[in-house]
Amino acid sequence: MTRMITTHEPFTAAAGIPVDGLPPDTTVERMPLADGGAFELALVAIPATDAASYDAVFAELVGRGSSWAAAATPGCDPPLVVPLYGTHVIWSPHRGVAVAPADRLQAMRAAVVEFVDREAELRDIERRVAAALERVDGDAPLAFEFDEPSLPRKRELAGRFREAISLRRRLAILAPLLRQPAPQPPTLAGQVGERLRDRSRVGERLEHAVEQADLLERVYAGCGERVAEFVASRRHAALEWVIILLLVAEVVLLAVDLLATHAS
Amino acid sequence: MTGPRATPRQASIDVLRAAAIVLMTLVHFVENLAGSWEVVDGAFIGANRYWWMPTGFAAPLFTFLSGVSYRLWADAQRARGRDEDEVSKITARRGLFLILFGFAFNVLVWLPEDVFNWDILTLIGTAMLALEVVRRAPPAAPLVACGLLIGLAPVLRAVADYRAFWAAGYFDYDFTVADVVLGYLATGYFPVFPWLALPLAGYVAAPLVYGMDPGRSQRMPWLAGGLLVAAAAAVMALRPLVPARLVTHEQLWSMFPPTTGYVLGTIGGMILLAAALHRTLDARSSGSGPLVRIAGAMSRHSLSLYVLHHVAHVWPLWLAGFVAAGEPDALWQVATPVPTALAWAVAFLLLAAWLAEQMDRPGAPSAESLLRWLCEP
Questions:
Q1: Residues of chain A contacting residue B145, judged by C-beta atoms under 8 Å apart
Q2: Contacts of A22 (CB under 8 A, 6+ apart)
């Protein structure tokens, strides 16, 4: 059973998805992604054909699938094409195509769905980490020293700390899923998933994301400590000031009393 | 998000300070030249009429606005990244300048025997020094200080025997350390207790009224002002419960001595007034109208106008008294009828408006340019 990172709706029949260029019997499904977007998966069965024309038909279907997948993100990198034991998986962040004999399509579908789910989760985390890293330079000084003018930023920093922890939590859940070994004995689905992970470098990306999230966590945990220290010392200082002011008031009262006794 | 943002110049503060100058001129010209205290059915306008009461807002306005302006200035310096020590030096120099200027003013205008009458300039100078301390203290410190200043003032007046220092409505002290210190603390015209509470209140109220923080509550100034006015009313209503030995005067609302109701009421009233003007004037005015322009010039030169309005009516009074009767104060409060004094006040205000604009020109001499030359690096 594939374990999903996010709660997905069941695949929906893709009535409105354009399938230009793909064979008419192609099954296309839509899958919601962690970042709020959607992934469209086309399952293309290789028609029964004679051995002489098989390669040509197969190449034609892969070419069409590549064009269809690339059409979702014009101007971006070309889709990844992973050939494996007479099947092909074509993948781009928003569209994928599995080209295989009909009896293998369901196994491939499961492998692609699992990969897409985890890769999308990683991509969403990477995007959020990158956005958070842009703010780190401005916030880092507050991990060293917090002062009165920075006090209005307390909530904002607390929010960023929560976000850093949330990213760290998501990475902690994602990491074992991405690093789990392929099933033994090897299966087509397992190998497809492994190839896709290798080709899309999710391992390295995961390590970088973990390092960056660690940095965020360290900075905002430091901010939290400085804020807590500042608030506590401020409370103590306020109390000390009240005591000082009361002492001053007492001295003034005493002085006025003494002076009044000796006034003309 | 960045640090605290600098607040732009607020036309409403200029208008309030100009209003204080107008009230101050009216009250000083009419009361010093014509008198009118305790006159039954006297002139239509004057201290004998209850509608003269708003003139009692002049000194509170000046002192309250000194705290407001200081807070906005200090926040702006911080937002510009100015060194804290430099801000402290400027503040301390300004405070000392105002105190010395106040003594010089007392000698030159009120004659040397009144050098320690503790006028408003020495109070604002003291307030500058106090605000420099408060600026570095936690926000609770000025609030507690205000409470102590207001709450202890009647006690100090009773302990110091306030009435013994006042004769015929004037602060009358001997040149002794005890009298001078008591005058500074509790019995003078503007003693630290409770008058220092007004600049501190202005300092505390400034971010509530003029703050640039989008998260601040718009209702806070109304709530604070309303509560203070209600507290003033409550204090006045509870007057019969005050122990007799703490009662140093009969009036519930008076400036000399500043009753607790008066201090709370003026602070509350000024917060409400500032909030209302900020909401109407600052939100809608571009600051380019002729009245706002003149108010701005008068506000920027309020120290000069404070000195000039005294010089304009007190020096002629001393001179005429000396010539007519051999005593400088022979014509004090009997020099002119009230309408004439009022006319002189209006004439001075017209002159003051023109003078303020002249002093706005670069290089024009004024008390403010002297202050800046001496106090700012």
A1: 245
A2: A28, A42, A44, A64, A65, A68, A97
pLDDT in tens, B214-236: 666 788 999 999 999 999 999 99
The pTM for the full model equals 0.75
Tokens for A257? Answer: 């009393």
For residue A233, give the chain B residue with the closest CA.
B138
B93: its two tokens: 């120099």
Q: How far is CA A83 from the centre of its chain?
A: 28
Among candidate residues B298, B265, B144, the one with its CA nearest the CA of residue A242? B144
Integer Cα distance of A229 and A143 in angstroms: 11
Q: What is the pLDDT of residues A129-188, one digit of tens each?
A: 999 999 999 999 999 988 887 888 899 999 999 999 999 999 999 999 988 887 788 888
Residues in chain B: 377
Distance from CA of A165 to the nearest CA of B (A): 21
With 0-12 / 13-18 / 19 or more C-beta atoms within 10 angstroms meaning exposed / middle / buried, residue B162 is buried
| Sign of the dihedral defined by the CA atoms of residues B220, B222, B225, B226, in that order | negative
Tokens of A222: 């430091």
Instruction: Residue B4: list chain A partners with CB under 8 A.
Output: 149, 152
Matching residue, tokens 């094409």: A81
Residue B172 and residue B165 in contact, taking contact as beta carbons nearer than 8 Å: yes
Q: How far is A212 from chain B (nearest CA, A)?
A: 22
**A126: closest CA of chain B, how far (Å):** 23
A255 interaction partners in chain B (CB closer than 8 Å): 181, 185
Closest to B258 measured CA to CA, from B333, B171, B172 = B171
Provide long-range contacts, Cβ within 8 A and 24+ apart, for B172-177.
B173/B116, B173/B117, B174/A264, B175/B116, B176/A263, B176/A264, B177/A259
The distance between the two most distant Cα atoms of chain A, rounded to a whole number of Å, is 127
Residues contacting A213, CB < 8 A, separation 6+? A125, A129, A164, A167, A168, A171
A243 touches chain B (CB under 8 A): no
DSSP state of B165: G
